[in-house]
C-alpha cells in the first residue's frame, strides 16, 4: 500500500462507518480494520487522532459538494434559468444519497453551521455560504419580485428540503434510491424548489 493510498483508504473506511454508526459508535480500530491498514498508529500519523479523522472526512464531503456546485454554476454561464440553478444546487446531494452516502453527508452539512463562526473557514461552512451567495446572485435577476433577504430565506428553505431528502425524511416508506434514480430525484426537488422561489412574497 502506498503512502498516498493509506490516508484515502482511512477516509473511505471512516466515512462508511460514520454513516452507519456515527462518531460515538466508530472506533479507530474499526476504521483500521475496514481500511485494511495494519499499522495501529496510522490514524494518529495522518490525522492526529480520531477527532482529526472525523473532521477530515467531514471536510472532504463538504469540499466535494462545493466543488460540484461551483462546476455546475460555471457550466451554466450567464444564461441559467431558475430550474437549472436549483438543479445545480441539489444534484450533488442527491448523487451522494443515491450512492448511499446521503444520510451522513446531510448530518455533516447540519453540523458545520452549528459550530462557532470562527471555525467556519476550517470546516467548510464559509465555502458553502459563499457558494450559496453566488447562486443567489445568479437567481436575483430572474426573481425581481424577491428582495435579497427573501431570496436568501427561500434558498435556505430549498437547502433544508434537500437535506431532509438526504437523510430519508421525505421517503414515506419508499425504498432507498440507487444510482439510476439521480435524475428522477433531482426533478422531485427542482419542481417544488423552483415553485417556492417563483411564488409571490407573503402578505
Task: Considering the chains and any ligands shown, give keywords for the structure.
203 residues; Tetracycline Repressor, domain 2; 2 domains
> How many separate domains make up the residues?
2
Total count of helical runs of at least 4 residues: 10
Helix content: 55-70%
**Shape, per Cα inertia axes:** elongated
Radius of gyration: 19 Å
Mean pLDDT: 91
Computed structural class: mainly alpha
Beta fraction of the residues?
Answer: under 5%
Within the CATH hierarchy, at the fold level, what is the topology of the largest domain? Tetracycline Repressor, domain 2
> So, the CATH homologous superfamily of the largest domain?
Tetracycline Repressor, domain 2
The CATH level-2 architecture of the largest domain is identified as Orthogonal Bundle
Counting DSSP E segments of at least 2 residues, the number of strands comes to 0
The biggest sheet amounts to: none
Poorly predicted regions: none
Distance between the termini: 63 Å
Reading off the top of the CATH hierarchy, the class of the largest domain is best stated as: Mainly Alpha
Topology as a string of helices (H) and strands (E): HHHHHHHHHH
Keywords: DNA-binding
Domain HTH tetR-type: 10-57
Domain PsrA tetracyclin repressor-like C-terminal: 90-190
Protein name: TetR family transcriptional regulator
Amino acid at each position: 500500500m502506498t503512502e498516498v493510498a493509506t490516508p484515502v483508504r482511512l477516509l473511505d473506511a471512516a466515512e462508511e462507518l460514520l454513516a452507519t454508526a456515527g462518531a460515538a459508535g466508530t472506533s479507530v480500530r474499526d476504521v483500521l480494520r475496514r481500511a485494511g491498514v495494519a499499522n495501529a498508529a496510522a490514524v494518529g500519523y495522518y490525522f492526529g487522532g480520531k477527532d482529526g479523522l472525523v473532521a477530515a472526512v467531514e471536510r472532504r464531503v463538504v469540499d466535494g459538494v462545493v466543488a460540484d456546485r461551483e462546476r455546475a454554476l460555471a457550466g451554466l454561464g450567464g444564461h441559467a434559468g431558475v430550474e437549472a440553478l436549483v438543479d445545480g444546487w441539489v444534484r450533488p446531494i442527491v448523487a451522494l444519497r443515491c450512492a448511499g452516502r446521503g444520510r451522513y453527508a446531510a448530518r455533516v452539512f447540519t453540523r458545520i453551521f452549528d459550530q462557532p463562526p470562527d471555525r467556519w473557514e476550517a470546516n467548510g461552512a464559509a465555502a458553502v455560504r459563499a457558494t450559496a451567495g453566488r447562486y443567489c446572485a445568479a437567481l436575483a435577476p430572474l426573481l425581481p419580485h424577491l428582495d435579497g433577504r427573501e431570496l436568501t430565506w427561500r434558498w435556505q428553505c430549498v437547502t433544508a428540503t434537500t437535506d431532509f431528502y438526504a437523510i430519508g425524511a421525505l421517503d414515506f416508506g419508499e425504498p432507498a434510491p440507487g444510482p439510476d434514480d439521480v435524475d428522477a430525484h433531482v426533478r422531485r426537488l427542482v419542481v417544488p424548489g423552483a415553485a417556492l422561489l417563483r411564488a409571490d412574497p407573503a402578505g
